[in-house]
Design brief:
61% helix
Amino acid sequence: MISRLKDRVVGSTTDLFSHGPQPLEHTLDYAGDPGILGPGSVSWRVVGDASAFVAGIRALLVQTAHPEVVAGVENHSRYRSDPLGRLTRTSAYVTATTYGAGPEVAASVALVRNAHREVKGRSERGKTYSAENPAMTAWVHNVLTDSFLTAYQAYGRDPLSPEDADQFVLEQTRIGALLDASPLPTDAGSLRSWVCDHAAIAPSAAQRDSIDFLRNPPLPPQVKVGYRLLSRAAIATVPPRIAAVLGVEPGCLDDKVGAATVRGLRWALGSSPAWHVALVRSGAPVPGGMFRQTLLTGS
């Protein structure tokens, strides 16, 4: 019965990320390639944990606080008509750049660059935006990095030491540099200050529309309950200044319920199969008891 319950959770979760190409399907063709971060990186541990589900929701929430960035999403993204497709593409980018072999990283970055070329316009406050603007790319990348770190420190398997937290941020600058993001803070404290004190943060109509969508996305009924718990866990970690702009407020037990939800996901899912297959590809030892899902590869 326990095994069947775990399998149901795995199936429901896997279905969410199956609406597009799988990023590491042929990664074992690159035997011995450690990728740009490598098996000894802090990033493989952080991104491979179940707390990454909270991180993804948090990043989407916080990113909407930048009026020009959210205008680009509102005006050029298909997230309303194809939310699971967007989720799959975003997840594929994070997976490929974190765990992929060198050629897989390059291909993923090229796809993003190509998609960004047409994302240009003007926000409601009259400022121009471009997805190729290094400062706007930095907002998206740095918020994602900060969200992974914050979620892991709050809900991860084992909180990072200050030294490992700084190392994680430094590792993530390698990915941001591939998209010419600038600036890229190199330690956890600088990153948190950069995000929290960012001068561009302001409310906007596009932000309110995005938040409304994120509050009640069109997910399967069996997934929506878990999503709401994870969403509340994400809100509990948003800095007060940004939470005020977003119009969200944490409940008194959201962090505790969120922690229990993440523990349940970790129990059912294990660590990311992308981490597992990257360890196999690179020839690194695979720790016992960490993985239970099928390897993400067709090779």
